[in-house]
Amino acid sequence: MIARGTILTATVIALVPLMLIVYYLLRKGLGSWSTNFFTTDPTGNTFFKSSSIGGIKSAILGTIEIVALASAISIPAGIAIAVWLVEYGKRSWFASTVRFFVDVLTGVPSILFGLFIYIVLIVGTGSTYAGYKGSFALALLMLPVVIRSAEVILLLIPGALRESALALGAPRWRVIFSIVLPTALPGMITGVLLAIARAAGETAPLLFTAAATLKTNFNLGQFMNSLPVQIYTDVTSPTTAVVNRAWGAALTLVVMILLLNLIARLVSRRSRLA
Asked: Residue 213: phi, psi to the nearest 5?
């Protein structure tokens, strides 16, 4: 009874700040939501009435494009590295070195990834900011999270499953694709979602790589707006309407991550039933 009471108390204490954050976001952000808010681009008129400042359409689409490309780069690469570490690397010195650097990268501040891409792809090539460069920075940010989470899940797969399939004559690659990965999929989805959520909320890497623009842009080779950068620029404005737009954008970002989690959980559940 004492242990249960202690655990319940600790859970409530942990949930209180979370619920307060959600409540404050709803209170400050819902007032900004409207059809115009989601269907128009920012106008740049930061010293006029709310009807003149525009919405966050370009920021929403830019975030989806940048994070989607970053996910397409980091998720397959991260899972492939994790599979190699668990299935092939084992206790080799090279695998230990890879794990060490992955652990180091996990704790690196996000701004350093942005600076790295800025130096290599912007200063080094003499080119300008671009959406795909922001995706590269976010991919580097996501990669260690995907690797470590996928590796932990793969290590939880019972060795008997692998041994049974190998004993039947199946090659190792088929065992990995047909048994190991499908079994680990639900757990991997959690790690992938954590990586995506972290990348979607990062501002610093995008300031150095993708910059910002007011208009909707589908060309990842040009400047591209995003929700974190939009929030960053709006929240420092002296105009109340623009600050309120920042709160609305912050609530939008949280809702987007929530919807992504719900969709991923539904796909994971159906895959297990299948």
From this structure: -150, 155
Is the pLDDT at 52 greater than 80? The verdict is no
User: What three-state secondary structure class fits 226?
Assistant: coil
Alpha-carbon span 63 to 228, nearest angstrom: 8
Determine whether 163 is exposed, middle or buried from the number of CB atoms within 10 Å of its CB (0-12, 13-18, 19+). exposed
Q: What's the average model confidence in pLDDT over 206-234?
A: 88
- pLDDT category of residue 274 using cuts at 50, 70 and 90: low
pTM: 0.88
CA–CA separation, 240 and 64 (whole Å):
27
Q: Residue 110: what residue type?
A: S
Tokens for 106, please give them. Answer: 């996990």
**69, 203, 220, 229 from 65: Cα distances, Å:** 6, 15, 8, 14
Residue 256, both tokens? 């987007």
For residues 113 and 11, give the distance between their C-alpha atoms in angstroms, rounded to a whole number. Answer: 34
Amino acid identity, residue 72?
Answer: A
Which whole-number Å values give the CA distances from 85 to 94, 116, 192, 258, in the listed order?
A: 9, 26, 18, 31
Instruction: Copy the structure tokens of residue 51.
Output: 């009807």
Mean pLDDT of 136-152: 92
CB atoms within 10 A of CB 159: 8
Q: Given CA atoms 143, 148, 149, 150 in this order, what sign does their dihedral have?
A: positive
Q: What is the pLDDT of residues 16-51, one digit of tens each?
A: 988 998 899 999 888 888 888 898 888 877 666 666
Helices of type H across 84-106: 93-106
| Alpha carbons 26 and 252: distance in angstroms, whole number | 10
Angle at 181 between CA 180 and CA 182, to 5 degrees: 95
Burial class (CB in 10 A: 0-12, 13-18, 19+), 263: exposed
Q: Which residue has the higher pLDDT, 75 or 92?
A: 75
